[in-house]
Amino acid sequence: MPRSVRLSVPPRHLAARREQGFTLLELLVVIAILGLLIGLVAPAALRQLGGARNSVARQSIQRLGQVLDLYRLDMGSYPSTQEGLRALVTRPDGAENWNGPYVREGAEPLDPWRHPYIYRNPSERPGHDYDLCSAGSTGNAANTAALICNP
pLDDT tens digit string along 15-52? Predict the structure, then answer.
């Protein structure tokens, strides 16, 4: 008596159908998970970027302070408010002892947000010879809480 044999391999047309790709539901689940991950990670990354710019601004202000000290050694005083940081790049009128340019860029230095630094001589703060500040991301010098200034 002949025995019937069962094949454990599914017919070809069924196997091909299973290997065609992802279902719409699977794609939607993956997109939702990616959206959640991006939503959680992006704000933290943007906060880090803002903190890094603040740190770069502080370091740049310290370096510019050292450059201003070199200028004072050569000239006998810090640049006036009117001369500003341009005096580090181009010779002010009547400056015989000027040994600049004191900064490498060919223009007045900018903060990490591409705004010009705020320079005042004499200082408006007690105990400082001059004020050298960055207005931060807003670029608004009137917002004194956001100013990053020389120590």
Answer: 555 567 888 888 899 999 988 888 888 777 777 666 78
84 φ/ψ sector (left φ>0, alpha ψ -120 to 50, else beta): left
3-state secondary structure of 6: coil
Query: For the whole model, what pTM was predicted?
Result: 0.65
* Nearest CA-CA partner of 118 in 81, 65, 77, 69: 81
Alpha-carbon distance of 57 to 111, in angstroms, equals 6
Give the tokens for residue 63. Answer: 């370096």
135 pLDDT above the threshold of 80: yes
Between CA 138 and CA 96 the distance in angstroms is: 38
Measured CA distances, 133 to 62, 70, 99, 123, 129 (Å): 10, 19, 24, 11, 13
Question: CB under 8 Å, gap of 24 or more: what pairs does 9-12 form?
Answer: none
Please state the domain extents for the chain.
Answer: 25-92+106-149
Q: Which fold has domain 25-92+106-149?
A: Glycoprotein, Type 4 Pilin (3.30.700)
